[in-house]
Write a structure and sequence with these properties.
This protein is an alpha/beta fold. It contains six helices and four strands; from the N terminus they run αβααββααβα. The protein has a single domain, classed as P-loop containing nucleotide triphosphate hydrolases (Rossmann fold, 3-Layer(aba) Sandwich), CATH 3.40.50. Helix 1 crosses helix 6. It starts with a helix and ends with a helix.
Length: 145
């Protein structure tokens, strides 16, 4: 969906994919959260250049109640968050169709209970049954992209 949205927008825009950083950082201490720090730096750099940003990634609130990224204070702009509802079965089906399977199906099952909306972001929920084009339209309508 993020890639389809990225392709549909004609204004300056940058796609920041958390998994890009998650899977390119190795041998870090568990609590370093380097992937979040790198993604946030990319988001801030893109925003500083005047680009809109699509941030694609799964994350949850840290034990101390903070977000792993300071997404709410990136330049003087609106921040929109979208939560794609998906059952475990649908999540596994989508995962099986991805070319990059560094996360196993077993790990997806372990992570699934943490996949829930983050109240701090007032996420717009997108129903599981939406087609990709319908979801992209809904995101564009809400965000004015």
């Amino acid at each position: 969906m993020a890639k389809r949205l990225f392709e549909a927008v004609s204004t300056p825009i940058v796609l920041v994919d958390l998994d890009h950083y998650r899977f390119t950082v190795r041998n870090q201490p568990h609590d370093a959260r380097a992937e979040y720090r790198l993604a946030e730096a990319a988001i801030r750099a893109a925003a500083g250049l005047g680009s809109d940003v699509i941030f694609e990634g799964n994350f949850r609130v840290l034990p101390d109640g903070r977000l792993p990224l300071s997404l709410l204070d990136v330049r003087e702009t609106a921040v929109f968050a979208f939560y794609m509802e998906a059952s475990l079965e649908e999540t596994l089906r989508r995962h099986a169709s991805r070319s990059d399977r560094r996360i196993t199906a077993e790990r997806m099952v372990e992570l699934y209970p943490a996949a829930k909306p983050i109240e701090l972001l007032s996420e717009v929920r997108l129903a599981e049954g939406l087609a990709v084009d319908e979801a992209v339209t809904a995101i564009r309508d809400v965000s004015a992209l």
